[in-house]
Amino acid sequence: MSTLSKEKISQSIIVILLLLLCVSVIYPFMYMLAISLNVGSDAAKGGVYLWPRAFTLDNYKVVIGNSVIRHAYLITIARTLVGTFIGMLVTLLAAYGLSYNLMPFRGALLTYVLITMLFSGGLIPLFIQLYHLNLLNSFWVYIVPSAFSAWNMFVMLKFIQGIPWALIESAEMDGATPFRILFSVILPLSKPMLAALSLFTAVGHWNDWFSGAFYVTDQNLIPVQTFLQQLLSASDLSAVLGSNSNIEQLARGSMLSNVTLMSVKMATVMVSALPILCVYPFLQKYFVKGVLIGSVKG
Protein backbone atom coordinates (compact mmCIF):
# COMPACT_ATOMS: atom_id res chain seq x y z
CA MET A 1 0.00 0.00 0.00
CA SER A 2 1.39 3.37 -1.01
CA THR A 3 2.08 6.18 1.44
CA LEU A 4 -0.60 8.35 -0.19
CA SER A 5 -3.24 5.66 0.31
CA LYS A 6 -2.26 5.25 3.97
CA GLU A 7 -2.60 9.00 4.51
CA LYS A 8 -6.05 9.02 2.89
CA ILE A 9 -7.21 6.15 5.11
CA SER A 10 -5.82 7.87 8.19
CA GLN A 11 -7.55 11.14 7.30
CA SER A 12 -10.82 9.33 6.65
CA ILE A 13 -10.65 7.63 10.05
CA ILE A 14 -9.91 10.96 11.74
CA VAL A 15 -12.85 12.63 9.96
CA ILE A 16 -15.21 9.81 10.96
CA LEU A 17 -14.08 9.96 14.59
CA LEU A 18 -14.51 13.74 14.66
CA LEU A 19 -17.99 13.45 13.15
CA LEU A 20 -18.95 10.88 15.79
CA LEU A 21 -17.58 13.19 18.47
CA CYS A 22 -19.60 16.12 17.10
CA VAL A 23 -22.77 14.02 17.02
CA SER A 24 -22.20 12.87 20.61
CA VAL A 25 -21.86 16.51 21.70
CA ILE A 26 -24.62 18.07 19.59
CA TYR A 27 -27.31 15.40 20.00
CA PRO A 28 -27.96 15.98 23.75
CA PHE A 29 -28.57 19.68 23.05
CA MET A 30 -30.88 18.85 20.16
CA TYR A 31 -32.79 16.41 22.35
CA MET A 32 -33.16 18.91 25.21
CA LEU A 33 -34.20 21.64 22.77
CA ALA A 34 -36.83 19.36 21.21
CA ILE A 35 -38.28 18.44 24.62
CA SER A 36 -38.29 22.07 25.75
CA LEU A 37 -40.21 23.14 22.64
CA ASN A 38 -42.70 20.26 22.82
CA VAL A 39 -45.94 20.06 24.78
CA GLY A 40 -44.95 18.41 28.03
CA SER A 41 -47.83 15.97 28.18
CA ASP A 42 -47.13 14.89 24.61
CA ALA A 43 -43.37 14.53 25.20
CA ALA A 44 -44.10 12.28 28.18
CA LYS A 45 -45.48 9.69 25.73
CA GLY A 46 -42.00 9.33 24.21
CA GLY A 47 -40.81 9.46 20.62
CA VAL A 48 -39.46 13.04 20.70
CA TYR A 49 -35.77 12.97 19.85
CA LEU A 50 -34.59 15.64 17.39
CA TRP A 51 -37.53 17.98 16.74
CA PRO A 52 -40.74 18.85 18.61
CA ARG A 53 -43.82 16.88 17.66
CA ALA A 54 -46.28 19.36 19.20
CA PHE A 55 -44.61 22.76 19.20
CA THR A 56 -45.21 25.13 22.10
CA LEU A 57 -43.48 27.93 24.01
CA ASP A 58 -45.37 27.27 27.25
CA ASN A 59 -42.32 25.70 28.88
CA TYR A 60 -40.26 28.82 28.30
CA LYS A 61 -43.14 31.01 29.49
CA VAL A 62 -43.09 29.09 32.77
CA VAL A 63 -39.33 29.48 33.11
CA ILE A 64 -39.09 33.13 32.10
CA GLY A 65 -42.24 34.00 34.03
CA ASN A 66 -40.88 32.60 37.28
CA SER A 67 -39.47 35.42 39.41
CA VAL A 68 -37.12 33.05 41.24
CA ILE A 69 -35.49 31.94 38.00
CA ARG A 70 -35.22 35.51 36.72
CA HIS A 71 -33.52 36.62 39.92
CA ALA A 72 -31.18 33.63 39.85
CA TYR A 73 -30.35 34.53 36.26
CA LEU A 74 -29.43 38.07 37.30
CA ILE A 75 -27.20 36.73 40.10
CA THR A 76 -25.41 34.48 37.60
CA ILE A 77 -24.88 37.32 35.10
CA ALA A 78 -23.61 39.64 37.84
CA ARG A 79 -21.18 37.12 39.31
CA THR A 80 -19.88 36.19 35.86
CA LEU A 81 -19.19 39.78 34.86
CA VAL A 82 -17.79 40.95 38.21
CA GLY A 83 -15.92 37.72 38.91
CA THR A 84 -14.29 37.60 35.47
CA PHE A 85 -13.20 41.24 35.62
CA ILE A 86 -11.73 40.98 39.12
CA GLY A 87 -10.14 37.63 38.36
CA MET A 88 -8.40 38.92 35.25
CA LEU A 89 -7.28 42.10 37.03
CA VAL A 90 -5.74 40.16 39.91
CA THR A 91 -4.16 37.64 37.53
CA LEU A 92 -2.64 40.35 35.35
CA LEU A 93 -1.25 42.34 38.29
CA ALA A 94 0.20 39.24 39.99
CA ALA A 95 1.79 37.91 36.79
CA TYR A 96 3.20 41.31 35.87
CA GLY A 97 4.77 41.78 39.29
CA LEU A 98 6.29 38.30 39.35
CA SER A 99 7.65 38.68 35.82
CA TYR A 100 10.47 40.92 37.10
CA ASN A 101 13.49 38.73 37.84
CA LEU A 102 14.91 41.29 40.30
CA MET A 103 11.75 41.29 42.44
CA PRO A 104 12.61 40.53 46.11
CA PHE A 105 11.61 37.04 47.28
CA ARG A 106 10.36 36.22 43.78
CA GLY A 107 11.41 32.56 43.99
CA ALA A 108 9.77 32.08 47.39
CA LEU A 109 6.52 33.69 46.19
CA LEU A 110 6.41 31.51 43.07
CA THR A 111 6.99 28.41 45.20
CA TYR A 112 4.23 29.46 47.58
CA VAL A 113 1.78 29.98 44.70
CA LEU A 114 2.77 26.64 43.19
CA ILE A 115 2.07 24.86 46.49
CA THR A 116 -1.43 26.35 46.63
CA MET A 117 -2.07 25.02 43.12
CA LEU A 118 -0.93 21.48 43.97
CA PHE A 119 -2.40 21.13 47.47
CA SER A 120 -5.69 22.22 49.02
CA GLY A 121 -6.82 22.50 52.61
CA GLY A 122 -10.14 20.82 51.85
CA LEU A 123 -13.78 21.78 51.94
CA ILE A 124 -14.24 22.08 55.71
CA PRO A 125 -11.26 24.44 56.29
CA LEU A 126 -12.48 26.54 53.36
CA PHE A 127 -15.97 26.69 54.82
CA ILE A 128 -14.59 27.75 58.21
CA GLN A 129 -12.44 30.41 56.56
CA LEU A 130 -15.40 31.80 54.62
CA TYR A 131 -17.42 31.83 57.84
CA HIS A 132 -14.81 33.89 59.69
CA LEU A 133 -14.54 36.26 56.72
CA ASN A 134 -18.33 36.79 56.85
CA LEU A 135 -18.67 35.70 53.23
CA LEU A 136 -21.33 33.04 53.77
CA ASN A 137 -24.76 34.08 52.49
CA SER A 138 -23.12 36.94 50.63
CA PHE A 139 -22.77 37.74 46.96
CA TRP A 140 -19.02 38.09 47.46
CA VAL A 141 -18.67 34.41 48.31
CA TYR A 142 -18.85 33.89 44.55
CA ILE A 143 -16.16 36.49 43.83
CA VAL A 144 -13.47 36.57 46.53
CA PRO A 145 -12.49 32.85 46.75
CA SER A 146 -12.10 32.61 42.97
CA ALA A 147 -10.46 36.01 42.44
CA PHE A 148 -7.02 34.42 42.12
CA SER A 149 -6.17 31.32 40.10
CA ALA A 150 -2.63 29.97 40.36
CA TRP A 151 -2.93 28.21 37.00
CA ASN A 152 -4.12 31.36 35.24
CA MET A 153 -1.34 33.34 36.89
CA PHE A 154 1.39 30.97 35.71
CA VAL A 155 -0.01 30.95 32.16
CA MET A 156 -0.14 34.74 32.14
CA LEU A 157 3.36 34.92 33.66
CA LYS A 158 4.83 32.76 30.90
CA PHE A 159 3.13 34.91 28.29
CA ILE A 160 4.46 38.17 29.75
CA GLN A 161 7.95 36.69 29.97
CA GLY A 162 7.71 35.95 26.25
CA ILE A 163 7.24 39.64 25.41
CA PRO A 164 10.54 41.15 24.16
CA TRP A 165 12.25 42.82 27.10
CA ALA A 166 13.51 45.56 24.79
CA LEU A 167 9.98 46.98 24.62
CA ILE A 168 9.86 47.34 28.40
CA GLU A 169 13.38 48.77 28.58
CA SER A 170 12.62 51.36 25.92
CA ALA A 171 9.49 52.40 27.81
CA GLU A 172 11.51 52.71 31.03
CA MET A 173 14.12 54.84 29.25
CA ASP A 174 11.30 57.14 28.12
CA GLY A 175 10.31 57.59 31.77
CA ALA A 176 7.28 55.31 31.86
CA THR A 177 6.22 54.13 35.31
CA PRO A 178 5.52 50.42 35.98
CA PHE A 179 1.76 51.04 35.75
CA ARG A 180 2.20 52.96 32.49
CA ILE A 181 4.20 50.04 31.11
CA LEU A 182 1.50 47.64 32.25
CA PHE A 183 -1.40 49.47 30.61
CA SER A 184 0.45 50.82 27.53
CA VAL A 185 2.74 47.89 26.64
CA ILE A 186 1.81 44.67 28.44
CA LEU A 187 -1.98 44.95 28.31
CA PRO A 188 -2.35 45.62 24.54
CA LEU A 189 -0.01 42.71 23.72
CA SER A 190 -1.79 40.38 26.14
CA LYS A 191 -5.31 40.68 24.70
CA PRO A 192 -5.34 37.19 23.10
CA MET A 193 -4.22 35.51 26.31
CA LEU A 194 -6.56 37.60 28.46
CA ALA A 195 -9.45 36.71 26.16
CA ALA A 196 -8.69 32.99 26.48
CA LEU A 197 -8.34 33.15 30.26
CA SER A 198 -11.44 35.34 30.54
CA LEU A 199 -13.43 32.74 28.64
CA PHE A 200 -12.25 29.97 30.97
CA THR A 201 -13.03 32.10 34.02
CA ALA A 202 -16.46 33.19 32.76
CA VAL A 203 -17.48 29.61 31.95
CA GLY A 204 -16.34 28.56 35.42
CA HIS A 205 -18.47 31.24 37.07
CA TRP A 206 -21.47 30.57 34.86
CA ASN A 207 -21.45 26.79 35.40
CA ASP A 208 -20.66 26.86 39.13
CA TRP A 209 -23.51 25.44 41.22
CA PHE A 210 -21.39 24.21 44.11
CA SER A 211 -20.87 27.60 45.79
CA GLY A 212 -24.56 28.43 45.79
CA ALA A 213 -25.48 24.99 47.13
CA PHE A 214 -23.04 24.88 50.05
CA TYR A 215 -22.17 28.48 50.93
CA VAL A 216 -25.55 30.18 50.45
CA THR A 217 -28.87 29.42 52.10
CA ASP A 218 -30.67 32.58 51.02
CA GLN A 219 -32.77 31.76 47.96
CA ASN A 220 -32.40 35.36 46.77
CA LEU A 221 -28.65 34.80 46.28
CA ILE A 222 -28.57 31.45 44.49
CA PRO A 223 -27.33 31.44 40.86
CA VAL A 224 -29.27 29.82 38.06
CA GLN A 225 -27.07 26.70 38.02
CA THR A 226 -27.81 26.05 41.70
CA PHE A 227 -31.50 26.56 41.01
CA LEU A 228 -31.18 24.10 38.13
CA GLN A 229 -29.56 21.57 40.47
CA GLN A 230 -32.47 21.99 42.87
CA LEU A 231 -34.90 21.74 39.99
CA LEU A 232 -33.43 18.46 38.75
CA SER A 233 -34.04 16.92 42.16
CA ALA A 234 -37.59 18.31 42.42
CA SER A 235 -40.46 15.83 42.50
CA ASP A 236 -43.39 17.99 41.41
CA LEU A 237 -44.13 21.12 39.39
CA SER A 238 -45.11 23.20 42.43
CA ALA A 239 -41.46 23.19 43.53
CA VAL A 240 -40.61 24.89 40.24
CA LEU A 241 -43.41 27.45 40.13
CA GLY A 242 -42.83 28.51 43.71
CA SER A 243 -46.35 29.48 44.78
CA ASN A 244 -49.96 28.41 44.44
CA SER A 245 -50.82 31.74 42.82
CA ASN A 246 -48.52 30.92 39.92
CA ILE A 247 -50.16 27.53 39.50
CA GLU A 248 -53.64 29.04 39.55
CA GLN A 249 -52.63 31.65 36.99
CA LEU A 250 -51.26 28.99 34.66
CA ALA A 251 -54.35 26.86 35.13
CA ARG A 252 -56.61 29.77 34.16
CA GLY A 253 -54.54 30.21 31.02
CA SER A 254 -54.85 26.51 30.15
CA MET A 255 -51.05 26.23 30.28
CA LEU A 256 -50.67 23.90 33.23
CA SER A 257 -51.96 20.88 31.29
CA ASN A 258 -49.35 21.49 28.58
CA VAL A 259 -46.26 21.49 30.78
CA THR A 260 -44.60 18.80 32.86
CA LEU A 261 -41.72 18.81 35.28
CA MET A 262 -39.41 17.28 32.67
CA SER A 263 -40.32 19.80 29.96
CA VAL A 264 -39.72 22.70 32.36
CA LYS A 265 -36.39 21.17 33.37
CA MET A 266 -35.27 21.00 29.75
CA ALA A 267 -36.36 24.59 29.13
CA THR A 268 -34.39 25.73 32.18
CA VAL A 269 -31.31 23.85 31.00
CA MET A 270 -31.50 25.52 27.60
CA VAL A 271 -32.06 28.98 29.09
CA SER A 272 -29.04 28.54 31.37
CA ALA A 273 -26.73 27.08 28.69
CA LEU A 274 -27.45 29.13 25.58
CA PRO A 275 -25.98 32.50 26.71
CA ILE A 276 -22.51 31.15 27.47
CA LEU A 277 -22.56 29.16 24.22
CA CYS A 278 -23.30 32.34 22.29
CA VAL A 279 -20.13 33.95 23.68
CA TYR A 280 -17.79 31.41 22.09
CA PRO A 281 -18.10 32.55 18.44
CA PHE A 282 -17.13 36.12 19.35
CA LEU A 283 -14.04 35.06 21.32
CA GLN A 284 -13.02 32.09 19.18
CA LYS A 285 -10.20 33.85 17.33
CA TYR A 286 -8.71 35.18 20.57
CA PHE A 287 -9.25 31.83 22.27
CA VAL A 288 -7.37 29.81 19.63
CA LYS A 289 -4.59 32.37 19.33
CA GLY A 290 -4.18 32.64 23.10
CA VAL A 291 -4.00 28.89 23.60
CA LEU A 292 -1.44 28.50 20.80
CA ILE A 293 0.71 31.32 22.12
CA GLY A 294 0.53 29.89 25.61
CA SER A 295 1.58 26.45 24.42
CA VAL A 296 4.54 27.85 22.46
CA LYS A 297 5.73 30.24 25.15
CA GLY A 298 5.23 27.71 27.94
From TrEMBL:
Pfam families: BPD_transp_1. Keywords: Cell membrane, Membrane, Transmembrane, Transmembrane helix, Transport. The keyword Cell membrane applies. It is a multi-pass membrane protein. Its main location: membrane. Residues 69-268 form the ABC transmembrane type-1 domain. The chain crosses the membrane at residues 12-34, 72-97, 109-133, 139-160, 181-203, 262-283. Gene3D superfamilies: MetI-like. InterPro entries: MetI-like, MetI-like_sf. CDD domains: TM_PBP2 (cd06261). It is found in: Cell membrane. PANTHER family: ABC TRANSPORTER PERMEASE PROTEIN MG189-RELATED-RELATED, POLYGALACTURONAN_RHAMNOGALACTURONAN TRANSPORT SYSTEM PERMEASE PROTEIN YTCP. Belongs to the binding-protein-dependent transport system permease family. This is Carbohydrate ABC transporter permease. It comes from Paenibacillus puldeungensis.
